[in-house]
């Protein structure tokens, strides 16, 4: 089962440096934001839409990225960090470090982009790595559906159960930006499709 983590702490850092960096950024930014800077980082980095002056969040486009590293509370942070810790390593190993970095960031941006489309004309605020994390789920969903011969049964079951839990979580927990989750998942699904297609074309079906 690809989601079992048996590495030592140092082994994890060496094998998955990009995932480790993302986790460190989330933790450091949260501690600075909540305990030292009185939410100043959230104020400057949160993704937001102004219905009159900035309906798509394009006047400060960096917020599409900076909001991915911000979180609204300890529970939000710990849930996202745990999901990243468990589910990100196999994808980093599959894609390679740089491609995985781009993949994660693009999925997070896609979550904010779909939110901007849905909430355009409304006052909207959003922060968190959930769009990027649901990009991981989208990638695994593509593999479980279209490349299931590459995954063992336990892994496929874990993928479907995790996605089902994510859907229920997104629907019943208050103040969840379900559109960011969906946008990230769609981006992850599509990006994994492109990756598989490029590998299939280069090496042949395998």
Describe the structure.
The chain has 206 residues and is mainly alpha-helical. The protein has a single domain, classed as Rhomboid-like fold (Up-down Bundle), CATH 1.20.1540.10. 70% of the residues lie in helices and 3% in strands. It contains 9 helices and 2 strands; from the N terminus they run αααβαααβααα. Strands 1-2 form a two-stranded antiparallel sheet. The chain starts with 8 loop residues before the first helix and ends with a helix. The relative contact order is 0.14. The mean pLDDT is 92.
Question: Concise description?
Answer:
The chain has 206 residues and is an all-alpha fold. The protein is 70% helix and 3% strand.
Average pLDDT for all residues: 92
- Identify the CATH homologous superfamily: Rhomboid-like
Basic shape: globular
Strand line-up across the major sheet: 1-2
Question: What's the arrangement of secondary structure elements?
Answer:
Blueprint: H1 9-15, H2 17-36, H3 40-45, E1 47-49, H4 63-66, H5 74-95, H6 97-119, E2 124-126, H7 130-146, H8 153-172, H9 178-203
Antiparallel strand pairs: 1-2
Helix pairs in contact: 2-5, 5-6, 5-7, 6-7, 6-9, 7-8, 7-9
